[in-house]
């Protein structure tokens, strides 16, 4: 079953169970997918849908820090719930150790020696770990490895 079908089935279940947060979260993701499909006149496959979901998680995490600054506990709780719902659709996230192994391997493969090679390393790592780690985490680890 495709990820799009899974989202649709989960939306139906959320509606039946009257889980408003889950229903709204899935609807927002589905509308983002639909918008991209209409803009590009194409149908997204699972890997592209994972990218959309990852970007939705990233948006919510950045909003989360803003809500924490303004002490909006009601919205923080709801955003955490939305992030948790979206994370269920993403592949299992890599631990820092697993991520470091992948990055070290890529650095050796592309023969990166300095920060000038960061772009090559980031693009190669991004292809290998699509949706399995946040690019900000990847960037931090790559910077550490290339500067040492």
From TrEMBL:
SUPFAM superfamilies in the cross-refs: GatB/YqeY motif (SSF89095)
Highest rank taxon of the organism: Bacteria
Any one Gene Ontology molecular-function term assigned to this protein's record: carbon-nitrogen ligase activity, with glutamine as amido-N-donor
Pfam families named among the record's database cross-references: YqeY
Coiled-coil ranges per UniProt: none
Name by which UniProt lists this protein: GatB/YqeY domain-containing protein
Organism: Natranaerovirga pectinivora
């Amino acid at each position: 079953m495709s990820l799009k079908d899974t989202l649709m089935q989960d939306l139906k279940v959320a509606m039946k169970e009257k889980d408003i947060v889950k229903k709204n979260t899935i609807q927002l993701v589905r509308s983002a997918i639909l918008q991209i499909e209409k803009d590009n006149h194409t149908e997204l496959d699972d890997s592209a849908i994972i990218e959309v979901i990852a970007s939705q998680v990233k948006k919510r995490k950045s909003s989360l820090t803003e809500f924490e600054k303004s002490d909006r506990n009601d919205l923080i709780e709801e955003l955490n719930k939305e992030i948790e719902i979206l994370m269920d659709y993403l592949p299992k996230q890599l631990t820092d150790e697993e991520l470091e192994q992948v990055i070290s391997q890529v650095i050796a493969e592309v023969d990166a020696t300095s920060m000038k090679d960061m772009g090559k390393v980031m693009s190669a790592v991004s292809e290998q770990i699509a949706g399995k780690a946040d690019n900000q985490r990847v960037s931090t680890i790559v910077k550490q490895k290339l500067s040492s």
